[in-house]
Amino acid sequence: MFTVMSQLAVKHDAINLGQGFPDTEGPADIIAVAAEALKDNRNQYAPLTGLPELREAVAASNKRFYGLEIDPATEVVVTSGATEALAACLMAVVEAGDEVVLIEPLYDTYLPMLKLIGAVPKCVRLQPPHWELPIEELRAAFGPKTKAMILNSPMNPAGKVFSQAELDLIAGLVREHDAYVVCDEVYEHLTFHVKHIPLMTLPDMRERCMRIGSAGKSFSLTGWKVGYVTAPAALASVIAKAHQVMVFATAPNLQRAVAHGLNKDDGYYQGLSADLELRRDLLRDGLHRLGFETLPADGSYFIVADITRHAQGRTDVEFAKWLVEHAGVATIPVSAFYDPEGPAAPQNLIRFAFCKKPEILEEALRRLEKALT
């Protein structure tokens, strides 16, 4: 679906609000460090688990933002992007036949990864329009064969940030069933007046969690593909073995630049989320003026809109294609974020990415207004 929508966007010269990456460059100082690092004669393989300065920066970031005491030598693994980190974490703890609990709508890479491993997904659906977590359904998803859970917070595509109460419930089930959690927290610094709480900070979760971060999301440098995993030493050593057979090492100059970025002051991170919140509000308010209802979006790059008023009986896929062709705006139908082998997915929701320049968002709204009125 992502390929289809991107191809349609090119064909119709559409504004692409389906793609989840910024249309501006990241901080100039980080890019300058990367460029200079290419010339310092350290361009051979980096250490398997990452350059010491980046592992130290990841550990310091965990301490600064969440109070987590992390050993950079044994509890951090640098990966070639967060997607590779996800694969390495799953390969470290999940085997064929194991069950893995997932929450829908979900990032589209999770299910293919589990299929490659031979694991069995057990999906639990958030309930729109408030993205409520169904407690009894979550309890029922855990069982004797549960080996792990993937928890994405802040969440793509829903924009949900899990609350303390929801995290307490999840932690209790994980402890009860002696499971692990792959914590996809790539949008950790992109929240809007809501606090992101890593599951790893909860009681007895330190030894069960693999926490994934992303330089691409934290510094708007998605093409660099630099991720990092924080995990207890016993798990980190196995994650490193999986990383070794897939990639081995990540570009050393980019690692040094990301280390510089992670050490930026709190003002940078506050400014990042504040700027993105303004863009979310610009798009959300514009969609409301056009008659779309939007669902809560407390974090990430994305906001989901209900198309019922405008769809005229079309499904989300049909309406998204119509928008590209008639409005020149590309989105992603939210049904693409559900297990195709599960129950029928909602057909009335589409996802917009608001991590674009304000003038691009304004032009997209003008195009939508022209097509819909």
UniProtKB/TrEMBL annotation:
The keyword Zinc does not apply. Keywords: Aminotransferase, Pyridoxal phosphate, Transferase. Residues 13-368 form the Aminotransferase class I/classII large domain. The keyword Transferase applies. InterPro entries: Aminotransferase_I/II_large (IPR004839), Kynurenine-oxoglutarate_AT (IPR051326), PyrdxlP-dep_Trfase (IPR015424), PyrdxlP-dep_Trfase_major (IPR015421), PyrdxlP-dep_Trfase_small (IPR015422). It holds the Pfam family Aminotran_1_2. Signal peptide: none annotated. Its cofactor is pyridoxal 5'-phosphate. PANTHER family: FI04487P. This is Aminotransferase class I/classII large domain-containing protein. It comes from the Bacteria. SUPFAM superfamilies: PLP-dependent transferases.
